[in-house]
Amino acid sequence: QVQLVESGGGLVQPGGSLRLSCATSAFTLDYSSIGWFRQAPGKEREGVSCISSGDGGTYYADSVKGRFTITRDNAKNTVFLQMNSLKPEDTAVYYCAAETYGTCTYYSGGAYLGGGHEYDYWGQGTQVTVSS
User: What one-character-per-residue DSSP string does 34-50 give?
Assistant: First the structure.
């Protein structure tokens, strides 16, 4: 079974930073778009960022724009989500997902408008808690 593995979550104080990683040994991430999602208790899953296959275009939800940065390291076959200026409302389980040859189609106007069904593979999630 193909696995994406997230890591890098943890407990951080408001204003702090974390870097999440999404990796797999099953395929080359460069040929996939990679989306980061989060889900807080009692809330719907939210798409927060995506990096496209091919041109590597990046997309962000307005709630994280200017604070989060998504990057791809092809040598490590890993996608990173650098999260700065974290807020308590960023607390959630964060998931990465891969869409083969995807182009982050459902990001528009600073929001993710899809249902996640376009993604072929999902990770198990990593907990991010922002609290003093």
Answer: EEEEEE-TTS--EEEEE
Which residues have CB under 8 Å from 77's CB, separation 6+? 23, 24, 25, 28, 29, 30
pLDDT digits (tens, 9 = 90+) for 2-16: 689 999 999 999 999
Q: Report in angstroms the alpha-carbon separations of 82 from 2, 44, 61, 96, 100.
A: 24, 22, 14, 13, 23
**Distance between CA atoms of 32 and 39, rounded to whole angstroms?**
22
Tell whether the model's pLDDT for residue 49 goes beyond 80.
Answer: yes
Residue-wise pLDDT for 100-131, tens only, equals 999 999 999 999 999 999 999 999 999 999 99
pLDDT at residue 1 tops 80? no
Burial status of residue 8 (CB atoms within 10 A of its CB: 0-12, 13-18, 19 or more): middle
Nearest to 123 by CA among 101, 97, 102, 99: 97
